[in-house]
Specification:
about 575 residues; mainly alpha; Four Helix Bundle (Hemerythrin (Met), subunit A); rod-shaped
Length: about 575
């Protein structure tokens, strides 16, 4: 359009719209900058006017790049800059032009050229062209002004595209980074299992601690009993040793008694011998008495023959006979006494002999028993040593078990402390995930940035990781998710992108795109069912749905990664073409 005067009005500067008509964001960019097909025609006029100075413009741009990022000029040569400038001035504003510009801008970004300094470079380029136009058509101010306006619009479009490339790439990196953060964050879903395991462990430790305390009591009782047994065993050993000593002394006395009885037997044998000698003497005296009696009888007979002369001799003979009879009677009495003495002596001798035999047998048995008694005393000594050792070991075990009980109590306290740390960690991680989510949503919603397909796919990844994460935290008790909070798979960010006509046109037939809808729908169904189950108090049902959600989410993430890889490959290919 032509301005009505040399200085454009505010309304003229605020005009929007374009006569280009094709699908895509670039039409909005053209419209916002009020760039039309007439402007494109004027761009070609500018190109003709500044053609003699094209190499200067290339050099200007190249030197600016070299100053900003020297390494970039190894890839972005003067020839590449010239190709870009030719496209800027001569290429129709359509999808092909956008692809050409984006390839160049992505190349600049890849070489890490600072975007702020690039804008300065574009402004310098714009100033160079403007001053060149002024030098060429200064005498036609209206034409000069319209050409300058067209150039400014074209430069504005380039700068807008440049900023969008950098901001969208930054958003892609942020979205990718937050997606990875959330992915790693979501991996901490084991906190629930950790807390459950710690609860179980704490319960087990409490049971073991109680059992250990009971065992401590039992072992202490055993130790006490062992000590008592050791003491009693010591007493028994002392008594056994004393008994052995007494038995030894008794054995000595028995042997001495046996010897005395043997002497008595010998003496009785001598007594028997003396009695035999007495009997022999008595037999002799008895014989003498018989002879005396016979002589007295003969004397009486002779006295009778002598008559009167023999009367005195007869009296003597009678007295002698009486004395002989009396002697015989006395000898009979003595013989009876000696017989009785022999009988009693024989009985006593037999009794003493029998007793002596018994004592000898007892001595033999005692001699045999003494080694056994010694063995018993020795065994009792060994038992004493063992019981003393057992008592000491039992006391050590009692101390060890008591130490175990103390340590188990410490472990129980430590387990509870670890559980509290796990609880705090879970809450902290949950708070961190909420902060990360607020950060990414703030970047997207508060900065008016239009998302590229890659950035949107990364955000969609995070969205679905968050659903898994939110349901998990709902089960743990860190977050509230109502069933009505779970939208359908048509209404979420991914669903809106998936069912968008432009997306269908761009990706229809792509395997990952075609497969994405089914697991995506399962994610939303499982999330809703999990929230419903949890609201009813069905924790197991909620956990089962979480597992289903996780399986579906894994498939969604895998397919989204494939789509991201496809977008990235297409962009890399286009960059390499540049």
């Amino acid at each position: 359009m032509l301005f009505k005067r040399l200085r454009p009005s505010l309304n003229e500067l605020l005009e929007k719209g374009t006569d280009y008509s094709f699908h895509g964001r670039f039409v909005d960019t053209l419209s916002y900058n009020h760039f039309t097909t007439e402007d494109f025609a004027k761009l070609k006029q500018i190109d003709e006017l500044i053609a003699p100075h094209k190499q200067e413009m290339v050099r200007l741009f190249y030197e600016a790049l070299q100053h900003v990022q020297p390494e970039a000029t190894k890839t972005i040569t003067e020839a590449r800059i010239e190709a870009y400038l030719n496209a800027f001035f001569t290429m129709e504003r359509n999808r092909a032009y956008v692809d050409e510009s984006l390839r160049f801008f992505h190349l600049l970004r890849k070489e890490k050229v600072n975007v702020g300094k690039l804008i300065v470079a574009f402004n310098q380029f714009n100033f160079f062209v403007l001053t060149t136009l002024l030098a060429k058509v200064a005498l036609a101010p209206k034409r000069c002004l319209t050409l300058m306006e067209t150039l400014q619009r074209a430069i504005n479009i380039e700068q807008q595209l440049l900023v969008e490339v950098y901001t969208e790439t930054l958003m892609e990196q942020i979205a990718d980074g937050t997606a990875k953060l959330m992915e790693q964050n979501a991996e901490i879903m084991f906190i629930k299992d950790l807390l459950q395991a710690l609860d179980q462990q704490n319960s087990d430790v409490q049971m073991v601690t109680a059992a250990t305390e009971e065992m401590t009591t039992a072992v202490s009782e055993v130790a006490h009993a062992a000590t008592v047994i050791a003491e009693k065993t010591t007493t028994s050993v002392e008594r056994a040793e004393k008994g052995q000593q007494m038995m030894t002394e008794a054995f000595g006395e028995i042997i001495e008694t046996s010897e005395q009885f043997t002497n008595m037997v010998d003496r009785f044998e001598h007594l028997q011998q003396h009695l035999s000698a007495i009997e022999k003497v008595m037999q002799l005296v008895n014989g003498i008495a018989d002879q005396t009696n016979l002589l007295a009888l003969n004397a009486s007979i002779e006295a009778a023959r002598a008559g009167e002369y023999g009367k005195g001799f007869s009296v003597v003979a009678e007295e002698i006979r009486k004395l002989a009879d009396h002697t015989v009677q006395s000898l009979g009495e003595v013989q009876r006494n000696v017989g009785e003495l022999r009988t009693i002596s024989s009985e006593v001798s037999s009794a003493i002999y029998s007793t002596s035999s018994t004592i000898r047998q007892a001595v033999n048995q005692a001699q045999e028993a003494m080694p056994l008694l010694q063995e018993i005393v020795s065994a009792m000594g060994d038992i004493q040593d063992s019981t003393n050792t057992n008592a000491a070991v039992a006391e050590e075990q009692a101390a060890a078990v008591d130490e175990i009980a103390t340590r188990m109590s410490s472990i129980a306290s430590l387990t509870e402390f670890v559980r509290e740390l796990g609880e705090k960690t879970g809450k902290t991680v949950h708070a961190l995930s909420k902060a990360i989510d607020r950060f990414r949503l703030g970047l997207v919603n508060d900065n008016g940035i239009k998302l590229s397909s890659k950035a949107l796919l990364h955000l969609a990844k995070t969205d679905h990781l968050l659903w898994k994460w939110r349901i998990y935290n709902m089960i743990v008790g860190y977050e509230t998710v109502r069933p009505e909070d779970v939208a359908s798979h048509y209404q979420c960010r991914l669903g809106k992108w998936y069912f968008d006509e432009q997306t269908k046109k761009q990706l229809q037939g792509t395997p990952a795109y075609e497969k994405l809808n089914a697991p995506h729908e399962r994610v939303h169904i499982a999330a809703k069912k999990a929230a419903e189950a949890y609201a009813k108090g069905d924790l197991k049902g909620a956990e089962a749905q979480l597992k289903e959600l996780e399986q579906a989410s894994i498939e969604v993430i895998r397919l989204l990664d494939e789509l991201i890889e496809k977008v990235e490959k297409e962009r890399t290919f286009e960059t390499h073409l540049a």
